[in-house]
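Structure ticket #2291
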Amino acid sequence: MAVITKSIRLRTKGETDLVDITAEVGEGVRESGLSSGIVTVFIPGSTAGVTTIEYEGGAIQDFRDAIDRIAPRNIRYHHDARWGDGNGYSHVRAALLGASLTVPFSSSELILGTWQQIIVVDFDNRPRSREIILQIIGE
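Resolution: structure written out below.
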């Protein structure tokens, strides 16, 4: 059993920017030299999250619309009153989505559905540099 840690760096636009990182996660698994196991994808920070989706225009817009209904930008957030940074909604959205995802792999390939991609969602109200941590566990 081995544990390997890698990272992915990317720039995001903020405002519910969805970035497909499936290829980068798959590359990290292949480069690990491990044949089977799991990879945990984790994003440090409190204004972004990780999940899976069919990464196509309709599903992306549906996701954005649903997030806007669940945690709208234009309501009062106590975080904003305290810190004045206007991103209270992004903290709530990220907390609801979650900061990590675990995906199994076999023969050094991710086990995902045909239309399933791994995405980072940056909810912050400004562009950001993000680091995504991959913790690869297997043999």
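Closing remark: The chain has four helices and eight strands.
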